[in-house]
Design a protein that fits this description.
By secondary structure, the chain is α/β, with parallel strands linked by helices. The chain has helices at residues 10-22, 33-42, 59-68, 84-93, 105-118, 152-163, 171-178, 189-201, and strands at 2-6, 26-30, 47-51, 75-80, 97-101, 126-129, 132-135, 140-143, 146-148, 169-170, 210-213, 217-220. The structure holds calcium ion.
Protein backbone atom coordinates (compact mmCIF):
# COMPACT_ATOMS: atom_id res chain seq x y z
CA UNK A 1 0.00 0.00 0.00
CA UNK A 2 1.27 3.45 -0.87
CA UNK A 3 0.93 6.55 1.28
CA UNK A 4 1.51 10.26 0.62
CA UNK A 5 2.67 12.38 3.55
CA UNK A 6 2.17 16.14 3.15
CA UNK A 7 4.01 17.90 5.97
CA UNK A 8 6.26 20.97 5.82
CA UNK A 9 8.19 20.32 9.04
CA UNK A 10 11.04 18.20 7.69
CA UNK A 11 11.71 16.45 11.01
CA UNK A 12 8.07 15.46 11.47
CA UNK A 13 7.81 14.37 7.83
CA UNK A 14 10.85 12.12 8.05
CA UNK A 15 9.68 10.71 11.41
CA UNK A 16 6.34 9.75 9.83
CA UNK A 17 8.00 8.43 6.66
CA UNK A 18 10.45 6.26 8.60
CA UNK A 19 7.68 4.86 10.80
CA UNK A 20 5.41 4.07 7.85
CA UNK A 21 8.25 2.39 5.98
CA UNK A 22 8.82 0.21 9.03
CA UNK A 23 5.12 -0.68 8.73
CA UNK A 24 6.02 -1.82 5.19
CA UNK A 25 4.22 0.87 3.21
CA UNK A 26 5.65 2.65 0.18
CA UNK A 27 5.87 6.33 1.15
CA UNK A 28 6.18 9.62 -0.76
CA UNK A 29 6.60 12.99 0.93
CA UNK A 30 5.58 16.50 -0.18
CA UNK A 31 6.61 19.57 1.82
CA UNK A 32 3.88 21.96 0.70
CA UNK A 33 0.22 21.79 -0.24
CA UNK A 34 0.67 22.65 -3.91
CA UNK A 35 3.30 19.97 -4.56
CA UNK A 36 1.22 17.54 -2.50
CA UNK A 37 -1.88 18.14 -4.59
CA UNK A 38 0.05 17.59 -7.79
CA UNK A 39 1.46 14.29 -6.51
CA UNK A 40 -1.97 13.21 -5.24
CA UNK A 41 -3.45 13.82 -8.69
CA UNK A 42 -0.66 12.06 -10.56
CA UNK A 43 -0.55 8.94 -8.39
CA UNK A 44 -3.14 6.59 -6.99
CA UNK A 45 -2.42 6.62 -3.24
CA UNK A 46 -4.11 4.34 -0.72
CA UNK A 47 -4.04 6.97 2.02
CA UNK A 48 -2.92 10.60 2.43
CA UNK A 49 -1.59 12.06 5.68
CA UNK A 50 -2.12 15.81 5.55
CA UNK A 51 -0.86 18.56 7.84
CA UNK A 52 -3.22 21.54 8.20
CA UNK A 53 -0.70 24.41 8.34
CA UNK A 54 1.20 24.18 5.05
CA UNK A 55 2.92 26.69 2.76
CA UNK A 56 1.44 27.51 -0.69
CA UNK A 57 -1.81 25.68 -0.03
CA UNK A 58 -3.12 24.81 3.45
CA UNK A 59 -4.64 21.44 4.35
CA UNK A 60 -8.23 22.71 4.21
CA UNK A 61 -7.82 24.09 0.69
CA UNK A 62 -6.02 20.88 -0.30
CA UNK A 63 -8.82 18.59 0.86
CA UNK A 64 -11.49 20.82 -0.70
CA UNK A 65 -9.79 20.87 -4.12
CA UNK A 66 -8.85 17.17 -3.93
CA UNK A 67 -12.42 16.08 -3.11
CA UNK A 68 -13.68 18.55 -5.73
CA UNK A 69 -12.15 16.35 -8.42
CA UNK A 70 -14.11 13.35 -7.11
CA UNK A 71 -11.13 11.63 -5.52
CA UNK A 72 -12.13 9.33 -2.63
CA UNK A 73 -8.65 8.38 -1.30
CA UNK A 74 -8.79 8.38 2.54
CA UNK A 75 -7.29 11.53 4.10
CA UNK A 76 -6.00 11.70 7.68
CA UNK A 77 -5.50 15.30 8.86
CA UNK A 78 -2.87 16.29 11.39
CA UNK A 79 -4.36 19.13 13.45
CA UNK A 80 -3.19 21.26 16.36
CA UNK A 81 -4.41 20.00 19.72
CA UNK A 82 -7.45 21.74 21.17
CA UNK A 83 -8.73 23.39 18.01
CA UNK A 84 -12.19 21.84 17.69
CA UNK A 85 -13.10 24.20 14.87
CA UNK A 86 -10.13 23.00 12.77
CA UNK A 87 -11.18 19.39 13.17
CA UNK A 88 -14.81 20.15 12.31
CA UNK A 89 -13.76 22.17 9.25
CA UNK A 90 -11.40 19.42 8.08
CA UNK A 91 -14.00 16.66 8.44
CA UNK A 92 -16.72 18.75 6.78
CA UNK A 93 -14.46 19.50 3.83
CA UNK A 94 -13.92 15.78 3.25
CA UNK A 95 -11.11 14.53 5.51
CA UNK A 96 -11.86 11.03 6.84
CA UNK A 97 -10.15 11.28 10.19
CA UNK A 98 -7.87 13.57 12.18
CA UNK A 99 -5.05 13.18 14.64
CA UNK A 100 -4.02 16.04 16.97
CA UNK A 101 -0.31 16.88 17.18
CA UNK A 102 1.79 15.78 18.97
CA UNK A 103 0.87 12.13 18.56
CA UNK A 104 2.33 8.72 19.21
CA UNK A 105 3.34 6.91 16.07
CA UNK A 106 1.41 3.77 17.11
CA UNK A 107 -1.79 5.77 17.02
CA UNK A 108 -1.04 7.16 13.57
CA UNK A 109 -0.29 3.62 12.33
CA UNK A 110 -3.56 2.30 13.79
CA UNK A 111 -5.54 5.11 12.17
CA UNK A 112 -3.90 4.41 8.82
CA UNK A 113 -4.82 0.72 9.12
CA UNK A 114 -8.38 1.71 9.98
CA UNK A 115 -8.62 4.00 6.93
CA UNK A 116 -7.21 1.29 4.66
CA UNK A 117 -9.87 -1.12 5.95
CA UNK A 118 -12.65 1.35 5.17
CA UNK A 119 -11.84 1.32 1.48
CA UNK A 120 -11.40 -2.45 1.42
CA UNK A 121 -14.00 -5.22 1.58
CA UNK A 122 -11.90 -6.85 4.31
CA UNK A 123 -12.71 -5.29 7.69
CA UNK A 124 -10.37 -7.36 9.82
CA UNK A 125 -6.69 -6.61 10.47
CA UNK A 126 -6.04 -10.19 9.28
CA UNK A 127 -6.41 -10.71 5.53
CA UNK A 128 -7.32 -14.17 4.24
CA UNK A 129 -7.35 -16.02 0.93
CA UNK A 130 -7.96 -19.74 1.17
CA UNK A 131 -5.51 -21.09 3.76
CA UNK A 132 -3.21 -18.10 3.36
CA UNK A 133 -3.41 -15.40 6.08
CA UNK A 134 -1.64 -12.08 6.44
CA UNK A 135 -1.66 -10.21 9.74
CA UNK A 136 -1.38 -6.49 8.97
CA UNK A 137 -0.50 -5.58 12.56
CA UNK A 138 2.36 -8.02 13.13
CA UNK A 139 3.27 -8.25 9.41
CA UNK A 140 3.37 -12.03 9.54
CA UNK A 141 2.13 -14.33 6.81
CA UNK A 142 0.98 -17.93 7.26
CA UNK A 143 -0.10 -20.73 5.00
CA UNK A 144 -1.77 -23.67 6.73
CA UNK A 145 -0.57 -22.14 10.03
CA UNK A 146 3.03 -22.37 8.86
CA UNK A 147 4.81 -19.01 8.90
CA UNK A 148 6.22 -17.68 5.63
CA UNK A 149 9.26 -15.40 5.73
CA UNK A 150 8.71 -12.44 3.42
CA UNK A 151 10.90 -9.50 2.49
CA UNK A 152 9.48 -5.97 2.82
CA UNK A 153 8.45 -5.73 -0.82
CA UNK A 154 7.07 -9.27 -0.97
CA UNK A 155 4.92 -8.41 2.04
CA UNK A 156 3.71 -5.14 0.46
CA UNK A 157 2.86 -6.89 -2.78
CA UNK A 158 0.96 -9.67 -1.00
CA UNK A 159 -0.92 -7.13 1.15
CA UNK A 160 -2.00 -5.20 -1.94
CA UNK A 161 -3.13 -8.37 -3.76
CA UNK A 162 -5.02 -9.66 -0.71
CA UNK A 163 -6.76 -6.33 -0.06
CA UNK A 164 -7.98 -6.37 -3.65
CA UNK A 165 -9.06 -9.99 -3.90
CA UNK A 166 -10.97 -10.85 -7.11
CA UNK A 167 -9.95 -7.59 -8.79
CA UNK A 168 -7.79 -7.85 -11.89
CA UNK A 169 -4.74 -5.70 -11.19
CA UNK A 170 -2.60 -4.39 -14.02
CA UNK A 171 1.16 -4.26 -13.62
CA UNK A 172 1.06 -0.45 -13.59
CA UNK A 173 -1.62 -0.44 -10.87
CA UNK A 174 0.48 -2.83 -8.77
CA UNK A 175 3.54 -0.62 -9.32
CA UNK A 176 1.55 2.47 -8.26
CA UNK A 177 0.43 0.92 -5.00
CA UNK A 178 3.49 -1.04 -3.94
CA UNK A 179 6.46 1.08 -5.01
CA UNK A 180 7.13 4.75 -4.22
CA UNK A 181 7.84 7.70 -6.52
CA UNK A 182 11.35 6.96 -7.76
CA UNK A 183 10.44 3.59 -9.24
CA UNK A 184 11.08 2.75 -12.90
CA UNK A 185 7.81 1.38 -14.28
CA UNK A 186 9.40 -0.02 -17.44
CA UNK A 187 11.08 -2.92 -15.70
CA UNK A 188 9.65 -6.42 -15.33
CA UNK A 189 10.10 -6.31 -11.57
CA UNK A 190 6.43 -7.10 -10.87
CA UNK A 191 6.74 -10.46 -12.66
CA UNK A 192 9.97 -11.21 -10.81
CA UNK A 193 8.33 -10.46 -7.45
CA UNK A 194 5.16 -12.44 -8.28
CA UNK A 195 7.31 -15.43 -9.17
CA UNK A 196 9.22 -15.21 -5.87
CA UNK A 197 6.02 -14.70 -3.91
CA UNK A 198 4.35 -17.73 -5.51
CA UNK A 199 7.37 -19.82 -4.64
CA UNK A 200 7.34 -18.66 -1.00
CA UNK A 201 3.63 -19.23 -0.46
CA UNK A 202 3.79 -22.58 -2.29
CA UNK A 203 1.39 -21.42 -4.98
CA UNK A 204 2.26 -23.84 -7.79
CA UNK A 205 -0.90 -25.91 -8.13
CA UNK A 206 -3.80 -24.88 -10.34
CA UNK A 207 -5.97 -23.10 -9.54
CA UNK A 208 -3.39 -20.80 -8.03
CA UNK A 209 -4.25 -18.17 -5.45
CA UNK A 210 -2.31 -15.61 -7.50
CA UNK A 211 -3.54 -16.00 -11.07
CA UNK A 212 -2.01 -14.46 -14.19
CA UNK A 213 -4.36 -12.52 -16.41
CA UNK A 214 -2.94 -12.62 -19.92
CA UNK A 215 -2.00 -9.22 -21.30
CA UNK A 216 -3.11 -7.43 -18.13
CA UNK A 217 -1.52 -8.51 -14.88
CA UNK A 218 -2.56 -10.55 -11.88
CA UNK A 219 -5.48 -11.31 -9.60
CA UNK A 220 -5.83 -13.03 -6.27
CA UNK A 221 -8.71 -15.51 -6.11
CA UNK A 222 -10.24 -17.66 -3.40
CA UNK A 223 -9.86 -21.31 -4.29
CA UNK A 224 -13.27 -22.62 -5.42
CA UNK A 225 -14.73 -26.12 -5.28
CA UNK A 226 -14.41 -27.61 -8.75
CA UNK A 227 -17.80 -29.30 -8.84
CA UNK A 228 -20.63 -27.94 -6.81
CA UNK A 229 -23.59 -30.33 -7.02
CA1 LIG B 1 2.87 22.53 9.27
Amino acid sequence: MRILVIEDEKKVASFIKRGLMEELYAVDVAHDGEAGLQMARENDYDCIILDVMLPHKDGFTFVQEFRGTGNTTPVLMLTARGTTQDRVTGLDLGADDYLPKPFHFEELAARVRSLLRRSSTEKSTVLRCGDLTLDTVTHRAYRNDKEIELTTKEYSLLEYLMRNKDRVLSRSLITQHVWSYSFDTESNIIDVYIKRLRKKIGDDDDPRLIQSVRGVGYTMREPREKDVE
